[in-house]
Amino acid sequence: MADLFQIIGDEIRYTLHPAQSVVLNILYGNQPKVFKNRIKEILLSAGTGGGKTSFGILLLYLLAQRLRGQRDGIIDFLVLAPDYKRLQGIIIDKFVDVFASKLQMGKYTGQPQYRFSFGGALEGVNIYFRNASDPHSIEGIHADFVWADEIGFHSTQVKVPKKTYQVMKDRIRQKDGYLFMTTTPYIHNWVYRDFVIPSNKIIYTVDDEVLQQAIELKNPELLRKYLKKQILLANSEKLTIIFPSFLNPTYPVENFFTAKEDWDIEGFKMRFFGLWTEQKPAILHGFKEKENVIEPFIIPKDEQDKWQAYLGIDFGIDQPFACVFLAKSPSGIFYVMGEYVQSGYDNSVHAKQIKIMHQKLVERFNYPTDIAGVYADPSGSARSVENQQNVASLIKELAKYYGGELPFKVPISRVFYGISVLNQLLSSRKLLIFNTCDETISEVYEWETIGGSHERDHCWDAIRYILATLSYFDKSILNHDISDDVEGFVEKKIDTKGDAFYYQTLNEWFKKIRGNNGGVLIS
């Protein structure tokens, strides 16, 4: 963490660079007149080492002073990080070291409060620290100011869901407060789509020619000399401020040039310039976000019965459970219209939530009420007796909520074949995704290898089960035979007999738990 302030005696002395000064001016009520709306939500998108976290800590103190000087009573701040490990190890430890140990301005109370309370002149100012990955952890606090650090963080183990953003806005509504977020770009997730794209923007950057010359000469002065500022206006209360690492005067610029050797140019711009550059999917190379991600629409009521609905399910035995709601239009276009992704619950909860999501899609988009097929497959080692029973129990739970039998189908689960199907449908724009399906879109960029045990491809596995199977038995779905597109692909690799035997085993389990009158659900 690149510090922007120093403690001299009992004083804090700090130096702000231009991007940070914009933030402070807005929070102090001195908003630049160029913006049409009052700015209430700010995102600092910066290169690593740009001083985001250090500035956030300083900002808490400066706002505490300002608000306490303006009014009496309780003042509450809320601070978030992607998980408690980062929250404790980076933000809390630093904050407590400065304001409790060195300046002795207050007291920190750990679990379960996770609260710092100022004393003295700032008596009544409280700072609550919470886990951004868990939206429920921030309920119940009406805040004057919310700061979420590394809001765009997204890994195979930790992510900040869009629900957190929605709850944060609720937390500041009662006191008409400000929402402040900081991050380095990671992937094109909801932060990019729902905040960066529609927001006002201030961008500090250099032209590619200047960057290339500075790298070749290893001359940091060229970067600072030719740094330019762009302002892009939008009819929005949101502001994104983008700046490179070297805008921070304490950043060691030699690290900037050394790091370039480890990144391609697009990754380098994201990591060290804070720019949301175009990402290239490693597996789904047919995907283009501007072409395959669309605004949701409502299926015309008089056409609803002409559309076909499919559910794809990835059981995620030790990973998140995923269900994707796909619909096929009369013209043969497939739309991903909804998704349900969750961890840590049993099949009774999953089945209930699938039905709830289905009903919401029917009400919101006229999604078909009848399901044409359910495609689910726990592949590989998951085909154990225990997990077959697990799948059968889900069938039983779903049957409760759907008032009868769902048409479970034998999926074609061969990975390389399925990926080729996905890429052809994506590149031909016959597979489109509603922009509300955050997990599905994010996984495009997170899915980096085939066969990894911790790959984030759960939604796409579910989609693959549907489309690989439909296209295998209906050749008109694809533009051409894809068998030549798959290295080593042989027709006999599609082992429908083997899959049918597997599902026959599931049917046996199903009969045991429901009774012989339950019938055979899987065809």
Describe this structure in words.
- The chain has 523 residues and is an alpha/beta fold.
- The chain has two domains: 5-273, 3-Layer(aba) Sandwich (Rossmann fold), CATH 3.40.50.300; 289-518, Nucleotidyltransferase, domain 5 (2-Layer Sandwich).
- The protein is 38% helix and 20% strand.
- The chain is built from 16 helices and 19 strands.
- It has helices spanning 18-27, 52-70, 84-102, 162-173, 190-196, 208-217, 220-225, 253-260, 265-273, 289-292, 347-365, 385-401, 415-427, 438-446, 458-473, 496-514; strands spanning 5-8, 11-14, 41-46, 75-81, 106-109, 115-118, 125-131, 145-149, 178-183, 200-205, 228-232, 238-243, 293-294, 308-314, 321-328, 334-342, 371-376, 408-409, 431-434.
- The strands form three sheets. The chain has a ten-stranded mixed beta sheet. The protein has a seven-stranded mixed beta sheet with strand order 13-19-16-15-14-17-18.
- A hairpin with a 5-residue loop joins strand 15 and strand 16.
- The longest helix has 19 residues, at 52-70.
- The radius of gyration is 26 Å and the shape is globular.
- Residues 484-498 and 513-523 have low confidence and may be disordered.
Question: What's the arrangement of secondary structure elements?
Answer:
Layout: E1 5-8, E2 11-14, H1 18-27, E3 41-46, H2 52-70, E4 75-81, H3 84-102, E5 106-109, E6 115-118, E7 125-131, E8 145-149, H4 162-173, E9 178-183, H5 190-196, E10 200-205, H6 208-217, H7 220-225, E11 228-232, E12 238-243, H8 253-260, H9 265-273, H10 289-292, E13 293-294, E14 308-314, E15 321-328, E16 334-342, H11 347-365, E17 371-376, H12 385-401, E18 408-409, H13 415-427, E19 431-434, H14 438-446, H15 458-473, H16 496-514
Parallel strand pairs: 3-9, 3-12, 4-7, 4-8, 8-9, 10-12, 13-19, 14-17, 16-19, 17-18
Antiparallel strand pairs: 1-2, 5-6, 6-7, 10-11, 14-15, 15-16
